[in-house]
Task: inverse folding
């Protein structure tokens, strides 16, 4: 009955409401569009510079397609109304370097257009992912050719003091108790401890090879709650770090993220300033969304349905 009600709400949105704001390129649920900081569908190169992707969110923060440039846009949309996605991949696993195809932006002084995540109470990361190659990728920073990276980079918001790796909010695959898991990970305080919520099911089941999957991670820095969703449905999982890693106990209230502008985004790996390769992802991504509040479970499901049509 609940699922039938939700499907009915999708029909109401589709028929009874005008299309979302043009800035969102017509594929974002109206209730989410007002909190949409950035949206990248990889179909809108910047005028005069195809290595940059326009932002369909309110921040107008252009994204850099690193190392592969315009060739990273491929004709493989994740859903019916999408034409393109971005190809992310390791180029030369046998040499330590920084030639992996990834996306992002980085500024040591912070990115002012991402100020919505400065002192944020909540956040969300949403988007489509398709695994297209070997994951995890060979660790090009190791002398041992059999070494693999301990993580697979998806999408994250950097902290205000990040070296290109540390994050305020992250959707990724990392090692948890010796096993690779799909996780949401966040750090409320710059330089402080992180908390991780890890999905219970094997990551290979959640992200089958050559299959588009819609993932969502939500973060509440005030309550400490995090959640993961796959194709609109919540995933069972557990919090990895015991105690109070975000330092939520005591005053002041509410608890917010550090009052610093993030140093950027990282997509498909770490170090968007392109100083080294880290946690490369052999995958494609489509319609990545960064929001400054936690999407409600019903919104996550409706967003999936909205895109699927």
Result:
């Amino acid at each position: 009955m609940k699922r039938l009600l939700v499907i009915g709400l999708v029909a109401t949105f589709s028929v009874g409401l005008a299309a979302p704001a043009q800035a969102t390129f017509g594929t974002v649920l109206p209730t989410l569009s007002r909190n949409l900081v950035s949206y990248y569908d990889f179909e809108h190169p910047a005028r005069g510079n195809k290595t940059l992707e326009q932002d369909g969110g309110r921040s107008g923060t252009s994204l850099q397609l690193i190392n592969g440039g315009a060739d990273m846009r491929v004709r493989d949309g994740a859903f019916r109304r999408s034409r393109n996605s971005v190809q992310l991949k390791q180029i030369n696993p046998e040499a330590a370097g920084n030639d992996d195809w990834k996306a992002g932006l980085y500024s040591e002084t912070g990115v002012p257009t991402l100020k919505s995540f400065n002192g944020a109470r909540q956040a969300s990361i949403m988007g489509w992912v398709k695994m297209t190659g070997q994951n995890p990728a060979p660790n090009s920073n190791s002398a041992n050719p059999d070494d693999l990276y301990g993580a697979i980079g998806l999408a994250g918001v950097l902290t205000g003091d990040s070296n290109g790796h540390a994050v305020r909010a992250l959707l990724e695959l990392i090692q948890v108790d010796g096993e690779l898991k799909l996780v949401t990970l966040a750090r409320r305080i710059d330089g402080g401890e992180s908390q991780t919520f890890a999905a219970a099911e094997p990551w290979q089941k959640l992200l089958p090879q050559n299959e588009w999957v819609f993932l969502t991670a939500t973060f509440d820095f005030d309550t400490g709650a995090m959640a993961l969703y796959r194709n609109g449905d919540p995933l069972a999982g557990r919090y990895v770090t015991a105690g109070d890693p975000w330092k939520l106990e005591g005053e002041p209230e509410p608890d917010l993220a550090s009052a610093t502008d993030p140093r950027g985004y990282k997509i498909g790996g770490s170090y968007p300033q392109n100083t080294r390769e880290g946690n490369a992802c052999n995958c494609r991504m489509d319609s990545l969304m960064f929001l400054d509040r936690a999407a409600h479970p019903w919104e996550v499901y409706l967003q999936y349905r909205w895109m699927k049509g």
